[in-house]
Amino acid sequence: MSTTFPRAGRGKPGYNVDQVEAFLAEARVAYDSDPTTATMVADDIRRTAFSMQKGGYSTQHVDAALERLEDAFAARERDRALQGAGNEEWYREARQTAQVILNRLDREKGHRFQRTSILTEGYSVADVDKFAAKLTRYFQDGYALTVDDVRTAVFRPQRGGYREAQVDIVLDSVVDVMLAVR
After folding, report:
1. SS (H, E, C) the chain
2. Which of 20, 34, 152, 157 is the most exposed place for a label (fewest CB within 10 A)?
3. Which CA distances in Å does 41 have to 28, 74, 76, 155?
4. Which NCBIfam families does this UniProt record tie to the protein (predicted)?
């Protein structure tokens, strides 16, 4: 019986144990391999999802481990890129990505992202716009915001709200920039 992570509470759903173990084994091999032939990158870790099962691994513990793993892969990728392109090129690319994000966030409130139909739920426009203001202050004024703040941002559902996929892509890009300049 594996004890890599604590189990979800009795009768409660958690992440599928076999899937988590298989992913961690694959990540271990990828991290230990030559970085020039990487089969896994930080972005792959961020987009990983597992099925749920009763008595599976605690989602909180697995998610925290995945965040640390993503950070480790991102640091390795950044170090490798800095060796190849140099500091100036690396930070230039990060600034360009940050500017693209800011261009999106500078749109008028209520119009920053596509909206779902009135019959479909999306993210609360007010919640996303409020968080967008924090992100803008982070990029423009150095407002204190952490990668975890972005990763754990939660928005209420709203009929006719912002399209979740668009918001999530921007948040992923914010994480990429934050990890790039750490």
Report:
1. CCCCCCECCCCCEEECHHHHHHHHHHHHHHHHCCHHHCCCCHHHHHCCCCCEEECCECHHHHHHHHHHHHHHHHHHHHHHHHHHHCHHHHHHHHHHHHHHHHHHHCCCCCCCCCECCCCCEEECHHHHHHHHHHHHHHHHHCCCCCHHHHHCCCCCEEECCECHHHHHHHHHHHHHHHHHCC
2. 34
3. 12, 7, 9, 27
4. DivI1A_domain, divI1A_rptt_fam
The residues, any chain, with a CB within 8 Å of residue 115's CB and separated by 6 or more, are 122, 125, 160, 161, 162, 163
The tally of CA atoms less than 13 A away on the side-chain side of residue 107 is: 13
Query: Which phi and psi (to 5°) does residue 7 adopt?
Result: -85, 155
Question: According to the model, what pLDDT value does residue 181 have?
Answer: 79
Q: Model confidence over 27-62: pLDDT tens digits?
A: 999 888 877 777 888 888 988 999 999 989 999 899
